[in-house]
Give the backbone structure.
Amino acid sequence: MADKLVTIAKFTDSVEANLAKQLLDDFGIKTVVTGQHAANIYAGVPAVAYVELQTLQSQARQALEILDSQKKQEQ
């Protein structure tokens, strides 16, 4: 069965999404960012459009652990 893409995070800002993407790319986890254009059009309007960070289902757990670790370091 083919590995499918799953959403691992949602952002209201495409810059934040791309920073998270770069972090995961640095760890060898392939990711894609979707919804950037809609979020840019509706910037400042809450809950209208989200930028989603997606990865392969087989890498989702590791990706979430890395993102969680990064959040804890920032606090």
In short: The mean pLDDT is 86.
